């Protein structure tokens, strides 16, 4: 089966920037109050109820944060380069190559799932099956936390993290994402939209949802 162009472009770009991406964002959480607040809420809600998947984990910086706070967490990423970087930076944690559109996990396997800026490279009209796959691997009552840039446009990236790349990123409306969640069987429990910081060009959104049933 031929992979969609956006999947190939995403894997290729993140393979190329893996090392510089990890270095540039390594300490980002230390100064981002809102990111920590949402992640800490997720940790408190999920607790020790079961395993958590950081789905689209990149170099594992959020995986490591969650693990340090007591979650039984592992990472999955489309990019082999990112997974290699994550294994190097967090040797005590498990990381696997995989696609959010077809996760190698059983139905209801996870107590929590994180999609931290990992939905933004899928065209909006193709997001519903991806969200359905995230919900499939959640146990009833399990939580999903996502973060993304707010807007309704496609941005084409030709240079990022010190490299020339070809990559599209989509800004999303919170109400659009909330609608996808509702259609897939999630109840949105919290939504936060914050102003962009000095290095950002758009507001940032977080949605925390629970699987019904």
From TrEMBL:
GO terms for biological process, alphabetical: methylation
Pfam families (UniProt xref): Methyltransf_25
Residue span(s) of domain Methyltransferase: 54-142
GO function term, MF aspect, one: methyltransferase activity
Keywords in alphabetical order: Methyltransferase, Transferase
Domain of life: Bacteria
Protein name as it appears in the record: Methyltransferase family protein
């Amino acid at each position: 089966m031929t992979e969609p162009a956006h999947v190939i472009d995403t894997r290729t770009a993140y393979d190329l920037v893996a090392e510089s991406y990890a270095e540039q964002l390594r300490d980002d959480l230390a100064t981002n109050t809102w990111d920590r607040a949402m992640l800490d809420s997720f940790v408190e809600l999920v607790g020790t109820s079961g395993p958590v998947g950081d789905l689209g984990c990149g170099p594992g910086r959020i995986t490591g944060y969650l693990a340090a706070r007591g979650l039984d967490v592992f990472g999955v990423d489309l990019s082999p380069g990112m997974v290699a970087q994550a294994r190097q930076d967090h040797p005590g944690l498990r990381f696997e190559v995989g696609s959010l559109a077809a996760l190698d996990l059983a139905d209801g396997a996870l107590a929590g799932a994180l999609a931290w800026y990992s939905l933004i490279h899928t065209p909006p009209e193709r997001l519903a099956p991806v969200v359905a796959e995230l919900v499939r691997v959640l146990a009833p009552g399990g939580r999903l936390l996502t973060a993304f840039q707010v807007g309704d446009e496609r941005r084409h990236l030709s240079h990022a993290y010190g490299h020339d790349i070809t990559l599209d990123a989509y800004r999303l409306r919170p109400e659009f994402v909330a609608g996808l969640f509702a259609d897939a069987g999630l109840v949105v429990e919290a939504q936060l939209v914050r102003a962009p910081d000095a290095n950002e060009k758009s507001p940032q959104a977080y949605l925390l949802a629970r699987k019904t049933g």
